[in-house]
Design brief:
Layout (H helix, E strand, L loop, with lengths): L7 E4 L2 E5 L4 E6 L4 E4 L7 H10 L7 E5 L5 H4 L2 H8 L2 E5 L3 H6 L7 E2 L3 H10 L13 E3 L4 E2 L5 E5 L8 E5 L4 E3 L5 E2 L3 E2 L3 E2 L2 H13 L5 E2 L10 H10 L2
Parallel strand pairs: 4-5, 5-6, 6-8, 12-16
Antiparallel strand pairs: 1-2, 2-3, 3-4, 7-15, 9-10, 10-11, 11-12, 13-14
Helix pairs in contact: 6-7
């Protein structure tokens, strides 16, 4: 088994699960577990191990929700669905990516050294993923009745169908790839539409979350709004 090394608590009921240089978020708030994003391919064992660390069984993972349809967020999705029977959720703009397995829409690198290097190393739009079915299309402004309620916020730019999820008021914002937080806040690896991406970065800061986590890098546990505002002002 490709065992998970860490399961990091973000806040009560929410855990960051590293899935091969990309994060998933596991929500344990009720009878059913919710996983947001599925990481790179071949990480299903890490997900099952994370579920076990919470004292739960694979079939307790009932919902698999996606911030967007890029390979590092859907790579293990088909395998996770087979292992758990989880129901799947994604913004309509990215559903064709999941259900075809690629190719993926072109991007240009984000600004800065880290995004430009990562773009060259990891972005492989023509490398296919195993396709899988999306059970429910989600849209901006709706609240999914999962884990006590996940409010959907459309945050396009990095990816046309990218969304974030606001959980428990403003207690936690799960923000996908609007930013990375590896060596501080930076642009994501790339943008499908940079102008839209800048608007989404501004929108993210305006949400004024208490805590925010991203698809890549550490969660910001304290001072999230201040750090987001500073990052936006630098762009």
């Amino acid at each position: 088994m490709d065992a998970i090394m860490t399961l990091t608590k973000i806040t009560d009921g929410a855990y960051l699960v590293p899935l091969g240089n990309a994060n998933a978020v596991l929500l344990d708030a009720g009878s059913d577990l919710v996983l947001i994003d599925a990481g790179f391919p071949d990480k299903v064992d890490r997900v099952i191990d994370a579920v076990g660390k919470l004292g739960r069984k694979p079939h307790d993972l009932k919902h698999l929700v996606f911030t967007h349809g890029h390979p590092d967020h859907i790579g293990s999705a088909a395998a996770i669905v087979r292992a758990t029977g989880a129901r799947t959720y994604m913004h309509a703009a990215d559903v064709p990516l999941a259900e075809s397995g690629g190719p993926f829409r072109p991007m240009t690198p984000g600004r800065g050294l880290l995004p430009s290097i990562a773009f060259r190393i990891v972005w492989k739009p023509n490398e296919p993923m195993e396709p899988f079915h999306i059970d429910q299309h989600i849209a901006d402004g709706e609240t999914l009745p999962l884990a006590g309620g996940l409010r959907v916020v459309h945050l396009p730019g990095h990816c046309a169908g990218q969304v974030g999820f606001v959980w428990q008021g403003k207690r936690l914002l799960i923000a996908g790839d609007v930013f990375m937080n590896i060596f501080g806040l930076s642009d994501p690896v790339g943008f499908e539409d940079e102008a839209e991406g800048r608007r989404s970065q501004r929108k993210l800061a305006d949400l004024a979350p208490e805590t925010v986590c991203f698809g890549h890098g550490k969660a910001i546990i304290e001072g999230a709004t201040t750090r987001l505002e500073r990052a936006v002002a630098q762009r």
